[in-house]
Structure formats: structure tokens, C-alpha cells
Amino acid sequence: MKYFTLLFIFSLISLSAIAQKEKKAEIESDPDSTGVISDKLQPTSLPLLLFDDNEKKEKKKKSKKKKKKNIFYGVKTKKGRLKNTLRNQVTYVFFFYTTEQKKADPYIRDIHWYDTKEKMIRSKDFDQTRGYLLHGPYEKVIDDKLIEEGHFYFGKKHGTWLSFNDKHVLQDKLHFSEGWPKDSRVSYYNRDENKIEKLTPIEYDLKEGNFFHFYEDGQIAVTGEYRYGEKVGLWTEYWDSKSKTIRKREVQYQEVPFSKDFRPYIRAEWDKEGNLIYRKDGLGSN
Prior knowledge:
Number of domains: 2
Largest sheet: 9 strands, antiparallel
Distance between the termini: 47 Å
Helix content: 10-25%
Radius of gyration: 24 Å
Number of helices: 2
């Protein structure tokens, strides 16, 4: 009798394990099967330099005091150089990068990093196993003429960025604070406590970059991207859940700005428990 009892318990455990594996496989093959987001966005990780002018001034003072070779913003770096020749035109890119491990900021759209395997600079999908974040001065030179210069802070554009034509005439001048355009608009629930409501990136009076809307408790409410003032790609709304980040709705916008004859549509919807309740026809699992 004891033997059969143990066998029964073992069978239940095995069935439970198999069910969990099947559920995991289902989720991996069909990302819409649950609206629960495991990689929860953390509003507290927003760059302080965007909101704290005093801290920015303090960091600037420290960087002036400690001008050591290859050390920028208090971080030791290594120098890199890339060369590319195309149709008798030679392009050089001079940059610095840090081997210090730092998770890419999920709020910034463009994270620039040096891919050591492909020997190139990328601005998307940072992979710590393949390369390093750019950190410090950056210059792009074409046929001995400076075309672009600026600074990076852990992969994010920082400070003043300048671009020139082949006659070294200034074409563009932009200001950044740890990846955020300086003209970005920030609204608050409570300014004194830095309770942010919305972050809207602005360049040249147009919305450009990642947009974020938060609930008053700091939970993410809406995420999306603007290009040239137009909504693009997938915009996601979230339920105001205290314990988990759960998708509420995904709306698909044009992939390229100013696309003709494109109408935004609801891609999928989930209930407050994360159960899929709607998905547009033709969007089944792969």
C-alpha cells in the first residue's frame, strides 16, 4: 500500500512538471498567451541628470577636477578606432568604451555599443557578451574632415552633439542629457517628489523617441515610440496592477512615418489577470 501511495505522489509531481514545461513552451511559442510581463520596467531607474540640475553640476565639477587619461565621468575607458573604405572614400570613427558592466537603460531608445565580434558600432539590442557600451568622446571623420562629434555616457548620447558638412560648416547642434533630448517634456503628479506622469521626447519641436506614461504609483501605463512626430510601431497599454506588470492592449501603428493608407489597429487585448481575450485575425503563434 505504501509503495502505491509513493508511486501515486511521484506520478502527480511528474504530471505537474510536464504541465509546467508545456505551459512554458506555449508561452514561448505564443507571446500573446499571457499578458503578464516578467521583465518589469522600473521607473526608479530613470536618468537623474534629466531631472536633477544640482547633481548634474556636481558631476561636472568632479569631472573637471579629475582629468586623467582615458577617464570620463569618473569611469576608466579604452580607446577604439574603426576604418571603412567605400568608393575611395575613407571613414574613420574614433571612440571610447567602458568594460564596466551596466544594464542598458530600458527607457532610452538608442543605446550605442561596440560590437567586438563584428567590429562595428550598434545602437540597438545591447549584448554584454558581444561588446561594450560607448563612454566618452566620439568623432566621425570622412576623408580627413570632421563630420560628427559628441560624448557618450554608458552608451547614451550626452551633452552637445555637432554635425558638419564636408566644408566643415555646422549643420546640426543637439543637446542631450543621458540619452534624452534636452527639449523633452516632462509632466509630474508631484514635482517635489519626482512623481512622473509622462515623458515625451522632443527634437526640433517634434516628438522623437520613446514615450512613457506612468500611473501615480509609478507603475508603467503606456509605452510607445515617435518618429518625426508620428506614432510608429507597437504601442502598449498596461493595467494598473500593484503586484505585476500586465498588458492591457497593444495597438499597431505604421512602421515608417507618413505611411499612406495605413490605419492603426488593435493587435491584442488581455484581461486584468493577463488572459488573452482578443487577437486580430491572422496573428496566430509561429
